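Minutes, project check-in
Item: structure for the 476-residue chain
Input as provided by the requester:
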Amino acid sequence: MIYIKSIEIENFQSHEFTKIDFSSNLNVIVGPSDNGKSAIIRALKWVLFNEPKGTEFIRFGASYCRVSIVLSNGIKIIRERTKSKNLYKLIEGENETIYEGFGNDIPLEILEAHKIKKIQIDKDTNICLNISEQLEGPFLLSQPNSYKSKAIGRIVGLHIIDEAIKEINREISSIQFEKRNLKDDLDKLDKQIKDLEYIYDLEDLILKKETLIKKIQDKLDLLDKLKYYKELINQIDREIDYEESLVSELRKIEKIDLELLEVKVYNYTNSTKLLKNMKLLAKEIKNQKDILNNTSNLEHIEIKLKILENYLKKYIDIIDYYKKYKLIENEIENNRIIEIETKNVQEINNILVRLEKVISKYSALSDKYQQLNLCINSINKGNEYMKKFRYQEECQNKIVNIEKLYNVLINIITLKKDFDMIEKEFKAVEQNYKDCSQNIYNLTEEYKNILKNISVCPLCGSDIDELKIDKILESI
């Protein structure tokens, strides 16, 4: 057992320096009045329990006070206070630990070192069984019966049962209050569920509306496709009109006699060659005349005459050719006129090429025209179907209302989940209440057995029998 071996007091109230050695048994401090006996008890409580507070106990004229105790196990505890410092020192062998900033509390290490604690009788009363004040009567004899009952109950551990009963009563009250709140919440949820029973019928309606919306969306997609095909058809119509205008222009070419044109071109080519030959022949005749005029040799005249005869024949031929030349010249003039009229032959060739492309396109357009008829039929059917949706705005409003109802349904489902969770918690609380009730019953029976064993009233200390025990239990 640990006990206080000695105490040293410095500058504490009337003590400038005092040292007292204690025995391991009961120690009593005696002496004349006003000689510092109570100050020794206060100094002892100050170092053990940090009481009293403040600095008024510092001896007048001193700047500090210090109280030291030495325990039987060699541990030394020092309590020191100045105007600016407030500390504990714990010395164990050669180790010294200083504690500051603990306020009104006591460092836990100090309490663990001396192991002297106050006993709590109730929430307002604490007593120290190790130290008695001056003029204090024997333990419990001068105290009222209620105080004695509490002290004895604390000694035998009845305060634990009292605290448990109080705690159980608080839990029961809390559980009952929570039970009432949960019941009110359940009633509200039941009422809300009844008010929203029609929501279950909305599920089928929502599915139907979703199907209807999907059909409408499909028809709108079909309508967009039909509009696209209609625009494509209009473009095809414009191309057809343009190609038909080209065909109309090409029909004028059929009036031209292509065979006659070839003959005239052939005659024009031959006439050009003859004209060139005639020019060469005229030049040769002129050269021969010059030769004749300059020739004086008769021997050569005969030769020249023969040559001239030949030339004459040629001249006659030339005359014939000249006539033909005139005819050819006329033909050439006519051919020039034809050439003027047919100067766009290259353009015609280009038109023929384009015409072949047009014919190819026309063949493709024929297939598209059949598709066009199918699209027109689909458009007509789509228009007939869209007439059924002329109240689309009203349907849209209904869809908005359905979405709102759907959100309400989601909220109801959430409330249902909360309801299930609350119901589960309620069952858990109810089971907890049953367990607490069983615990109360068990503790009551145990308390009853304890009272039977001690046969003493915990309140007044008088003897009790089983009848009084039952009355005590009823009053709890």
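Outcome recorded: The chain is about 65% helix and 10% strand.
No further action items on this chain.
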